[in-house]
Amino acid sequence: MLPGLRTSVAGFSLVEVVIAMAVAGVSVIALLSAISSGMLTMQMARENVRATQIMLEKTETLRLYSWDQLIATNFLLTSFTEKYDPTDTNVSALSYTGTVTKTAVPMTTAYSDEMKQVTITLNWTTGHINRSRSFTTFVARNGLQNYIY
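Now predict its structure.
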């Protein structure tokens, strides 16, 4: 060291440390918020896929009914409950409540009395969000069941 020169001791001031901690805190909060939002989005997507599976299952069973069974008032179940995980025995697990409604076809053609409109609706709750999905299809008297029976 040369005589007459002082070495300065470098360091961070308290203001710099506080600002750095604030930036780090905001970054951590944003990261945790993004992870939480991503997890909720994935859970909702899984629930949507399961709802689609349930509606498809109910729709596929319609193909196996004869016309007489389909138009009978007491044959087709009008309400049902399905679990998110069919193997889960937990009573408080997520479950879907559904309805099946059959109505006349909303068209005025010569064969409209030979068809039925079937709507399958599912309702469930994700957290505090009430969710619902529905699927509508048409069933004809001379549909696939003539090939099965």
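The chain has a mean pLDDT of 85.
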